[in-house]
Amino acid sequence: SPQSKIAKFTGGATGDYDFKVELISDEKLQVTHNALEAARLAANKVMSEIGETLFYSLLRVYPHVVLRENKMIATAGADRLQEGMRRAFGKPMGLAARIRPGQIILELHVKSAHLEKAKNAMRTASSKLPMTTSVKITPLKKELAKTVKQQ
């Protein structure tokens, strides 16, 4: 099977953060490893503006599904090379992750000062994915639970 394009699944620094910001899928579909890596990079690029040590990012899906393609040739004389749908089990072309509605794709842990930056990062990452998504914010500390409800 092809090599996954996802370089790493965690980024930033682990630590004591105030909020967990999650990018959640609203649809059921397959997302290629290219799209997942693009979303991860986009989110990390926005977040690295505040500093590499002030956030923690986590990609929560893994591309297990092997995508295959039965190549068709559209040139003259191609009928000698081509078998049409005979033996149509294609060659591996890429990888994809199966995603369910409500599944967490990407997670960012931030301090309350950088909550808006994390929301922007999720918006940017969402534009790299072929589906509608929603952002969920969860406080990681009990005393912050009240501030989220007021927003």
- Rg, nearest Å: 20 Å
Q: pLDDT average, as an integer?
A: 92
Looking at CATH, the homologous superfamily is Ribosomal protein L16/L10
Major sheet, described briefly? 5 strands, antiparallel
Across the major sheet, the strand order is 1-4-7-2-8
The name CATH uses for the topology is Aldehyde Oxidoreductase, domain 3
Walkthrough of the structure:
The model has no long low-confidence stretch (mean pLDDT 92). Helix 1 runs antiparallel to helix 2. It is elongated and about 70 Å long. By secondary structure, the protein is an alpha+beta fold. The chain has one domain: Ribosomal protein L16/L10 (Aldehyde Oxidoreductase, domain 3, Alpha-Beta Complex). It contains three helices and eight strands. The strands form two sheets. It has a five-stranded antiparallel β-sheet, with helices on one face.
Brief descriptors of the model:
single chain; alpha+beta; Aldehyde Oxidoreductase, domain 3; 5-stranded antiparallel β-sheet; 8 strands
Write the layout of secondary structure elements.
Elements: E1 10-12, E2 19-25, E3 29-32, H1 33-47, E4 55-59, E5 65-69, E6 91-99, E7 104-110, H2 115-126, E8 133-139, H3 145-150
Antiparallel strand pairs: 1-4, 2-7, 2-8, 3-6, 4-7, 5-6
Helix pairs in contact: 1-2
